[in-house]
Design goal:
2-enoyl-CoA Hydratase, Chain A, domain 1; about 260 residues; alpha/beta; single chain; 12 helices
């Protein structure tokens, strides 16, 4: 793929050697439908091949970073083995593509960051949240195990106690609280978010390129060591797509009310 192939991601190159990447489905808070989910996966090897890009900044258009997965995509996958395997492969590739991506990534987290959007937000090397940002791993709220990125990085970022609490309850976390517990690198006032992200990107883009990349590569070995844990969590998440709890969770999200999960009755 090249940049022209992407439908729901905008690209803007800025000096020095910085690519701004914007999720662009603002009418649905940049929720990841099938196409955007696939583009989130494909974008990293695409940028990797661009020698003019040394640093990436990623954010969302409008009021949100990305408000999770499109519910129709989830509903369509219910008990469909082939579609579940496809989603598993994409979810796995998204994480490993970001972990193995050689260039520094800065996330500017505006508004809601849930699901696949949260994967990108937290696997960025420097994550900057606006004070009004709201982060949540919503898997349990939807009746599925917390797979995706959470098992590979949350315990490293904020410790096991906080990871278990937020992943098992699916509670939202404010930008300020996310910074306090170490889930994100920084939290700034909303109006300063993009300016701060640009400043960090400039510092990285004008710094010693190889030293920064090699530091990232070394630190990401911690994540790669957790690869078997991540793969296990992802398999358990996909098993949940065969459970009636999934449809109860989807219906609860559609109706914006607490679902009644069959497994809890």
């Amino acid at each position: 793929m090249n940049y022209d192939d992407f439908q729901h991601i905008l690209f803007e190159k800025r000096d020095p050697h910085t690519l701004w990447l914007t999720f662009n489905r603002p009418d649905v808070l940049n929720a990841a439908n099938v196409r955007l989910h696939s583009e989130m996966v494909a974008v990293w090897p695409t940028i990797e091949r661009d020698p003019d890009v040394h640093v990436v900044v990623v954010t969302g258009a409008g009021r949100a970073f990305s408000a999770g997965g499109d519910l129709q995509m989830v509903e369509d996958a219910y008990q469909d083995f082939d579609e579940i395997v496809r989603i598993l492969d994409e979810a796995r590739d998204l994480v490993y593509h970001m972990v193995n991506f050689s260039k520094p990534v800065v996330s500017a987290i505006n508004g809601a960051a849930v699901g696949a959007g949260l994967v990108v937000a937290l696997l960025a090397d420097v994550s900057i949240a606006a004070e009004s940002a709201r982060l949540a791993d919503g898997h349990v709220r939807m009746g599925v195990a917390a797979g995706d990125h959470s098992a590979i990085i949350w315990p490293l970022l904020c410790g096991m106690a906080k990871a278990k609490y937020y992943l098992m309850t699916a509670d939202f976390i404010s930008g300020k609280e996310a910074e306090r517990i170490g889930l994100v690198s920084l939290c700034v006032p909303d109006k300063e978010l993009l300016e701060r992200a640009a400043a960090v990107a400039h510092q990285l883009a004008t710094g010693p390129r190889h030293a920064i990349r090699f530091t990232k590569r070394a630190l990401n070995q911690w994540l790669l060591q957790a690869g078997p844990i991540f793969d296990h969590s992802l398999a358990l998440e996909m098993m949940s797509f065969f459970s009636q709890d999934l449809m109860a969770g989807v219906e609860g999200l559609r109706q914006k009310q607490n679902p009644r999960f069959p497994s809890s009755e």
